[in-house]
Write a structure and sequence with these properties.
Length: 543
Amino acid sequence: MKNTYRKIFKWGDKREESLDKGIVKLLKEKFDFSDKDFRQHYLFGDEEITLRKACSLPGDTINRLVAICGAENIDKSDYARASHAMGYFFSELLLLRKGEVNTPPDLVVYPRTEEEIIQILQICNKENIAVTPMGGRSSVTRGLETPKGGISLDLTRHFNKILEVNEINSTATVETGVYGPAFEKQLNNFGKGYTCGHFPQSFEYSTVGGWVAARGAGQESTYYGKIDDLVLAMKVITPAGIIETKDYPASAEAWDLNKTFIGSEGCLGIITRVTLKIKRWRPQNKTFASFIFKNFESATESMRNIMQAGIGKPSLFRISDPVETATGFKIKGFENSFSDKFLRFLGYHSGERCLMFVTVDGDKEYTHLIKKKIKKIARSEGGFSIGRKPTKEWLEQRYSSAYLRDPLMDIGVMTDTVETAVSWDKLINLWTAVRAYLEKREKVHVMAHISHVYETGANLYFTFLSPMKKGKELEDYLQYHKGLVDTIHNNGGSLTHHHGIGRALAPWMEDEMGKTAMGLMQASKDYLDPGGIMNPGGTLGLR
Ligand SMILES: Cc1cc2nc3c(=O)[nH]c(=O)nc-3n(C[C@H](O)[C@H](O)[C@H](O)COP(=O)(O)OP(=O)(O)OC[C@H]3O[C@@H](n4cnc5c(N)ncnc54)[C@H](O)[C@@H]3O)c2cc1C
């Protein structure tokens, strides 16, 4: 099989091969697509990779790296370098489809031990060679680009062991290059059975190190917590030395150094191991509920009341806004069914109604009790209970919609997601403003949901689909994306709730954080990485 650009941007998952009938129908209706449009192969990227930029590291440096890691763990092939040159941000996927990999790393290195990482950093620091740590490479923020070439340090080949599961402390210590499913499976099968509880949509193709470094959140974070809440201790190898925090349950030893590295996006050092809090895995106790509300405002109000009632927390807790709800119903063929007509008869009209998905995890009596209490609050606010099925069905496809992007891009459809966190008092206003901005575009389909919920607010997650402006795909996308981030930023939303900053959101950082805060971050970087070799080129807005 040829080493094509396409091989890089495809996950290689069966689910990305085709669009199902419901989506085809939606695209025909929304964008007037004809059958011919579905047969096109736009920017297919199936050319063999040939990089214009050769590896520019001196032979002597490469020999020393080979002596450290072994020749089999150093790769300077065009395929390895191109596939470690960027992640999954929409503009990066476009560039790959166009065969434009202009600043690849010089080498991909797969270290085997922490000692090897220390030696690699010593060489790179001395010779001013950039080092970009990489896990599953699922970054959607331009967090992995290598504008200064250098070394892409890939941890997935050798740093994938679970070092300890401590049943007494309820913790797991793990090497950071392990992928989600391998980690979770081992926890599920260990002793009494445990879970990490961190299930990002990219779970199947992302690693523990990436979760921590990009400060992510899983789909059940409302109960299990964001990764920030799960990390207890870590080991980080920086150019200035090693920092190892301890797994105390809590501490008042100055400020929390874990937080310095959670969200550091490879700019300060390489996180080689982390100790995470784990919980008992009891899937048999999980309870499920789904509700339909008359509109987004009442669904959101009910969600807030549930979170603030002091009754305990659901694990999966989501609301799809009216368009996302209608889209889901259309794709599933629910529209005009008997149940649809019944719901409309009750006043739950298409284009206004919103679905709420709920699961509760934990002890059996707890999960039943919390579900009962949630039902009571939801009903009192106009939520109509529609049983377990919608939520169960949602969970069955929880990772799949990620694989739609490629078949959509194949037919010339631009699709992207942007997310933010916002306090309750600004949420509806922000949702309205972002929708209004996105919908200004001719031919666009915009969906939104809330999926990570707190007592004080929630996230908002927008997905848009629109035909690409052919020949100007990149400029068009970047302009639309800029306006979108500006709208979020000007209406009280955070730059990101869980995707991270990377280079994509870096231009907004100083305005968001303030000069002094940026100065503190820069000073930390300058101390830990005096030569500026760690993931350089503007990540996080740092020099
Ligand atoms: C389809 C799709 C769905 C997604 N859904 C979610 C979601 O639901 N929730 C969510 O949080 N994110 C989501 N993401 C974003 C992405 O998957 C997360 O940021 C993820 O945590 C990245 O993990 P990774 O192993 O792929 O890291 P990478 O993409 O390889 O790296 C991400 C960043 O972390 C740095 N890094 C990686 N490993 C280390 C390390 N060991 N030490 C220091 N720095 C390191 C890299 O340099 C880079 O800056 C999604 C992405 C895609 C493509």
